[in-house]
């Protein structure tokens, strides 16, 4: 993967209007929007730009099945995606051919039917497809169990390995300073106002700081007394070789989740399982996740193994120890998922998975992101906790966070995303 980004040699003794911690899609998109507004911005990434969640996801740009609070943001984001390749001057493998969630039972069908009025209220073209319509949409698909599906034709997909790097390069071209392999160990505040962050290269002063550190966010906010009760959830993805069939360029979610790339390869993911590797954070925040765990208990898998031991030994306390979180994929489940895909697409012929990978997603108890300025520390902003559904929101979050940091209106109701919702304070 080409991850060459314009890197500034030294950050020592620098000062910025805005410092951003985290070089994923949220941090890079915000840096881009700030830089083009003439703001002096520094973007700090402990590993490589887009090296963790932002390059390891499915590539879905999905309005379908969003929470009511997220949906207006996602609708704007789709509009931004439609012009993003032209704006950034690079191919992102953007395709707007829909998102499909397949139905195999009556309960799932009823859940999808209940969501349709919300989508239509916001002007979406979401509809239920019959089994015949699904097979027409996916000519090579063969699954007699399929009863239909929920389909939104205005949804899309893009290549995660390209997007964050494109934002970071564009930000650099606009004047942002991008630092890879530069971890931030702590954030400093005086009299309730952020003033600096400490990096491997020394102290960097900033008027405002955005923490968009994904799975690492909680570890940066806790020393400041700010609660961010996220847990790491592991997802696994495999990639086939070039297949002899062409599948509609969408993300389909059913017994498996898959997206065909422009080169003919298909990314296949374990769709109906959430893997949580138990750590100390599980003990601290686990009770807050009980409602979500109860709702999804059939799909939840817990692991108590080497990850827990490493956490107890402090292996994840130092941001320089793990430049890039690179967990092992669950090969047994990936291979089973590939077999299911082969049954659904027999015309694909025999194939092997050329490679596989995994990544950690930062999940919140209510599965909604945290967006905005913290109440206890002025000038400190957070954009994290996207619970496995953040990639598609990247462009709009970059726009929103840049506006908030500059004191401009967000353009949306962000009350349900408030950083205060997990604190002891009452929200106004």
Automatic annotation (TrEMBL):
One GO term describing the cellular component: cytoplasm
GO MF annotations, alphabetized: oxidoreductase activity
Residue ranges occupied by any FAD dependent oxidoreductase domain in the UniProt entry: 17-404
Highest rank taxon of the organism: Bacteria
InterPro entries on file: FAD-dep_OxRdtase, FAD/NAD-bd_sf
Alphabetized UniProt keyword annotations: Oxidoreductase
Protein name according to UniProt: AgaE protein
Species annotation: Mesorhizobium metallidurans STM 2683
